[in-house]
């Protein structure tokens, strides 16, 4: 699939204020700093579209980006960011959970996982929560430019093993690098297939 246009539409903290045009959408979620905003920029080939930062906690709102005037990519705040206050964190968690469970036009959740790390409890718990809620998700490993392919394969295998302790089968798995552009086509083709 070709991305011909990508435009910021709206930011907010309330699912009721998200666009009401019924267009399909795909959300990016994962721990703070995992590379959600960078991946959106890589997929759309628009560097400054979603705001990125070396410091965790950059994205704090639900951000809709309209793609090809037909569907949305949605950038979400990260979970598990220790430096925000407890109250701020629970309000984050509430509006993100609200958005994920109530948004009828949400077609798929991309759960981003840092390819350098072994399976993390918080990510496994989040994916299990998606499963319990019946929310379709895929696993997207990020920053693969930062490790060797053998280290990547090792972490992928560990993740798969952990997932198969809970699930009968694995969700789709993607490997990406926002820096090199690796993984762009398979991800966009997957979205295209869902939209078809
Ligand atoms: P929050 O909005 O704070 O939750 O973070 P985020 O998940 O949106 O992460 P963001 O895209 O802002 O990226 C965090 C940092 O990781 C930035 O310094 C990026 O440049 C870097 N980064 C993201 N993706 C990659 C990647 O694929 N490779 C490398 N080398 N760095 C990356
Ligand atoms: Mg972000």
How would you describe the overall organization of this protein?
The chain has 196 residues and is of the alpha/beta class. The chain has a single domain (6-195), classed as P-loop containing nucleotide triphosphate hydrolases (Rossmann fold), CATH 3.40.50. Helix content is 35%, strand content 21%. The protein has five helices and seven strands. It has helices spanning 36-44, 86-102, 121-132, 149-166, 184-195, and strands at residues 6-12, 25-30, 62-67, 71-75, 106-114, 137-142, 173-175. A seven-stranded mixed sheet has the order 1-3-4-2-5-6-7, sandwiched between helices. The model has no long low-confidence stretch (mean pLDDT 93).
Number of helices: 5
How many domains would you count in the coordinates?
1
Distance between the termini: 11 Å
Rg for CA atoms: 16 Å
Please name the fourth-level CATH homologous superfamily: P-loop containing nucleotide triphosphate hydrolases
Mean pLDDT: 93
The percentage of residues in β strands lies in 15-25%
Report the top-level CATH class.
Answer: Alpha Beta
CATH second-level architecture: 3-Layer(aba) Sandwich
What ligand species are in this complex? guanosine-5'-triphosphate, magnesium ion
Q: What is the succession of H and E elements?
A: EEHEEHEHEHEH
CATH T-level fold name: Rossmann fold
How many β strands by DSSP?
Answer: 7
In spatial order, strands of the major sheet run 1-3-4-2-5-6-7
Overall spatial form: globular
The major beta sheet can be summarized as: 7 strands, mixed
